[in-house]
């Protein structure tokens, strides 16, 4: 795959998170894709847990914006530095950041994600 194709897949992934669109988001993934989000937690099978994942976002956030700050592509993998900004349903503003490593398979689907970020950052901002 070309670097442009890989970047387009990742852009679609981020756009669908921002839109909190479960169907569009999961279409980026292989049927047997795994997500380590965040790294350190047990992996999830994306196609089994995608409605729950996006549902959690919708339960907390009125607005969410995912921004790709940097992308580094090597072969069929990419590391993306990102920042998320959101407004909760209680009107609290949150900002958090991380790095996600994507493995793209030969069919042009995300096979694995490994997200490096700290969920406590969001929780602390929501509680403040």
Q: Could you characterize what this model shows?
A:
- It is built from four helices and six strands, in the order H-H-E-E-H-E-E-E-E-H.
- The protein has 128 residues and is an alpha+beta fold.
- It has one domain: Nuclear Transport Factor 2, Chain: A.
- Strands 2-1-6-5-4-3 form a six-stranded mixed beta sheet.
- The protein is globular and about 45 Å long.
Notable features of this structure?
128 residues; alpha+beta; Nuclear Transport Factor 2, Chain: A; six-stranded mixed sheet; 4 helices; 6 strands; 35% helix
Summarize the structure.
The chain is of the alpha+beta class and 128 residues long. Helices cover 35% and strands 43% of the residues. The N and C termini lie far apart (44 Å).
**Quaternary arrangement of the chains shown?**
single chain
Biggest sheet layout: 6 strands, mixed
CATH architecture: Roll
CATH topology: Nuclear Transport Factor 2, Chain: A
Give the SSE string. HHEEHEEEEH
The proportion of residues in beta strands is 35-45%
What share of the residues lie within helices? 25-40%
How many β-strand stretches?
A: 6
Rounded to the nearest angstrom, the radius of gyration is 14 Å
Mean pLDDT: 96
């Amino acid at each position: 795959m070309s670097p442009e194709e890989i970047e387009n897949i990742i852009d679609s992934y981020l756009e669908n998170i921002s839109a909190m669109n479960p169907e569009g988001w999961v279409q980026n993934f292989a049927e047997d894709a795994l997500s380590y989000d965040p790294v350190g937690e047990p992996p999830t099978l994306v196609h089994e847990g995608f409605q729950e994942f996006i549902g959690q976002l919708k339960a907390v956030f009125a607005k969410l914006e995912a921004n790709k700050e940097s992308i580094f592509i090597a072969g069929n993998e990419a590391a993306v530095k990102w920042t998320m900004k959101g407004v909760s349903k209680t009107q609290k503003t949150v900002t958090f950041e991380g790095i996600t490593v994507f493995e793209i398979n030969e069919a042009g689907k995300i096979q694995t994600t490994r997200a490096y970020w700290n969920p406590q950052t969001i929780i602390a901002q929501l509680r403040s």
